[in-house]
Write a structure and sequence with these properties.
The chain is mainly α. The protein has 10 helices and no strands. It has 2 domains: about 120 residues, no CATH class; about 100 residues, no CATH class. Helix 8 packs across helix 9 and helix 9 packs antiparallel against helix 10.
Length: about 250
């Protein structure tokens, strides 16, 4: 069986992520997490959503989920069995406990992932999983990250939304006939990430969290930096092609 470069990368990420997830879940809860008053159910959901994403696309990098495929049930069983083992082992870790509702959150993450992958292939699925993760991480703590770790808050908003924009551009390039450096491409590439940012912040305010315009500016800067850089790269490439053709 030929393993593509992308599949190799996913396997490497899986082999890195899963042990890291195990270690983080089986140490006493860090004081910083306690101060942030983080919803551990959201963390469990995100963790298992990402895990099942890596598991599925390590097995089937170019296919959607189908209930008739053995790989689907192997991934589902792996997620569930690990969730059970995870909770049982947490019962012997100081400061942690075996919680049925944590397992429900794990199960929800696994099922949500498999449902998403039923309808979407790798790149759209990665965009959706990234969006869910960014949304959840933004809203899972009752105490603002900016108050606890200002530098980390800046890095998160800049990198997370820039990555989301880059994924959206990849999906445009794969599934749309619109190409940079057309102005229409510039608009399409910008609108969804900026609307996503607005939706996340609107939900945060609706949930009673403080609105920080600095976070919006930083996130928007990350989005626009990726969009503009991609646009300029395409523009320069087109000009070079035109110049070569004229010569």
């Amino acid at each position: 069986m030929i393993v593509s470069r992308r599949q190799k990368l996913i396997i490497i990420l899986l082999l890195t992520y899963w042990p890291a997830l195990f270690v983080l879940a089986h140490i006493p809860i860090p004081q910083l997490v306690r101060k942030a008053d983080v919803s551990d159910k959201n963390l469990h959901f995100i963790a298992y959503l990402i895990l099942v994403f890596l598991l599925w696309f390590a097995f089937s990098p170019d296919r959607k989920v189908s209930g008739r495929r053995v790989a689907v049930w192997l991934v589902f069983a792996a997620g569930i069995c690990y969730g059970v083992l995870d909770e049982l082992l947490q019962g012997v870790v100081a400061g942690r406990s075996c919680d049925v509702m944590d397992f429900v959150a794990d199960l929800t993450g696994v099922i949500t992932g498999l449902i998403i992958f039923t309808f979407f292939t790798f790149w759209p699925a990665l965009l959706i999983v990234t969006g869910i993760t960014v949304f959840a991480l933004t809203n899972l703590a009752r105490v603002s990250l900016a108050d606890l770790l200002p530098a980390a808050n800046v890095a998160f908003h800049l990198s997370a939304y820039a990555f989301f924009a880059a994924l959206w551009i990849q999906n445009i390039n794969l599934f749309s006939s619109i190409r940079a450096p057309k102005i229409k491409w510039l608009i399409v590439a910008s609108v969804l990430p900026l609307c996503f940012l607005a939706a996340v912040k609107f939900f945060s305010v609706a949930a009673g969290r403080d609105f920080r315009w600095q976070d919006v500016v930083i996130a928007a800067a990350g989005i626009l930096a990726v969009v503009v850089a991609t646009y300029l790269f395409a523009f320069v490439r087109c000009r070079r092609i035109e110049t070569s053709a004229d010569a």
